[in-house]
Amino acid sequence: FALAPIALSAGGGYVLLNHGVIAPFQDVAERQRDQIAPAQNLRLLIWDILIPVDEYLQDSDPVHPDTYRNIRGQVEVAFSELISALDGTPQARGLVERARDNWTVADQHATELLSVVGLPGDRHVIETQQRFHGSVVTTTDLLAATYTQISQAIMDDHDMANRSYERSMWLAGIAGGLSLLSIAFGVVMIGRVLSQSVDRLVDGAIRFADGDRLHRINVSVPPELHRVAVEFNLMIGRIQASEEALAELALQDSLTGLANRRA
């Protein structure tokens, strides 16, 4: 009985820790690995893709288109993986899909710019470059909004985990207090029962000493005192039977068996 609050708190604490602490922290770790880090890496890749395009417009080095194509392949894979990782968060996934649409536009502008040869000051080239930069900025802004939204979800999970942990600590403290009270109550009750049982034994002994042969001691708990009371009652019964037999003998003459006149 005294351990019941502890057992209940253990069960309740397990539920709280498993669903309110461990699960949110696992969710935080998974979001950090599958969503936060890929979103940040994708933003950096898209910023990096400006470099080969702008440098190509300055020096027309054929190395820059190869660099761009290499980064573009990484960007497309990163977009695909991030969108898959955001299946359970439609709002964040919508932002990433919009970012990918803007990236597609930026890629079209970049492809056009990388096909230009020897026209660095051409007005159309400058306007296309500006549109390319604008699409890249819009793409990174949408990814930044995605990062902010995922970060807020992580903070919410973290706060929920902290609250659940605090509740589990309160539950453990309350259960410990209740267990101590239960133990104290049990000790008091056991002491009272033992005291009452001992009082009955003492009262029975006093009555027996005063000549009461009809009284029987009734003690049920604890078992040890119950056995003492049973033996005491048996002893009283045997003594009573012996006294009755002696009394009958005192009423008869020992030689003739006739009633004793003095009786």
From TrEMBL:
One of its GO terms (cellular component) is membrane. The chain crosses the membrane at residues 169-190. PROSITE patterns: HAMP. The keyword Transmembrane applies. The keyword Transmembrane applies. Keywords: Membrane, Transmembrane, Transmembrane helix. GO terms for biological process: signal transduction. InterPro entries: HAMP_dom. Residues 192-244 form the HAMP domain. This is HAMP domain-containing protein.
